Amino acid sequence: MTYCLKCQDWINQPVTWSTLFLPSEQTNLCDNCASQLARINGTICERCGRQMPEKMICDDCKKWQSSAKFRDVLQYNRSLFSYTPFMQEVVTQWKYRGDYQLKEIFTPYIQRELRNFYTIESLAIVPIPLTDERLQERAFNQATAIAELIAKHTKNSVIAALSRKASQSEKQSKKSRKQRITTKNPFFLTKSLETDVLLVDDIYTTGMTIHHAATLLKEAGCPNIYSFTLIR
Question: What letter does residue 36 receive in the DSSP assignment?
């Protein structure tokens, strides 16, 4: 018997040969909470991974591709979940209320899906950094937590190749889309890389954060840059 990491209800798991040797991917969530995770599957935007009604490039990605500055700096992004009200609750509990253990909700999905998205062994894993102020406020960087989960199950290295400039501006989550996409690049390089890279963050919203980071890495000599976020 164990408990749900989201709602703390007890989970009754019958012991069978299959659960004994191959634990269910839902062992960290009760059935009710697990049913509210909106997995992205089927047709998606081939660049950002957004769920789409048909195979096509979404309007946001068309704008990125029309920009001389950002065109083709990112090969593509892939995400596991859509940003639903339930996922918003999970993110708030994990990211803003400091419930670090909630990251284990995502472990079985990362284990199962990641190799469907990338040739993972060839990629250096680079988490999107927080400012020192934001890191002190939250006590951990959610992107680094995700990157470490990936590294644990793939034997890749997590490389802190980026740092974030201190800023007095409001949080990205409180900015409008227009404000996000006109923001100056908040990152600088702390380590030189000349390998293919997997950028890791928790949420892909407009793509501005990922594209800023990818631009720096591309300019520094990284041939191919991909990104992975839990949520799109």
Answer: T
pTM across the whole model: 0.88
Q: Which residue has the tokens 């339930």?
A: 86
Instruction: Report the candidate in 156, 160, 158, 98 with the shortest Cα–Cα distance to residue 129.
Output: 160
- Asked if residue 111 lies in contact with residue 182, where contact means CB atoms within 8 angstroms, the answer is no
* Structural contact between residues 28 and 104, judged by C-beta atoms closer than 8 angstroms: yes
Q: Using one digit for the tens of pLDDT, what is the confidence trace for 106-144?
A: 999 998 999 999 999 899 999 999 999 999 888 899 999
Running DSSP on this structure, what letter comes out for residue 140? Answer: S
Helices (H), 57-204: 59-65, 85-91, 107-117, 132-138, 142-154, 177-181
Per the CB < 8 A criterion, the answer to whether 101 and 5 are in contact is yes
What CA–CA distance (Å, rounded) separates 27 from 75?
A: 34
Mapping DSSP to helix (H, G, I), strand (E, B) and coil, where does residue 82 land? coil
CA angle 183, 124, 23 (to 5 degrees): 105
How far, in Å, CA of 155 to CA of 149, rounded?
10
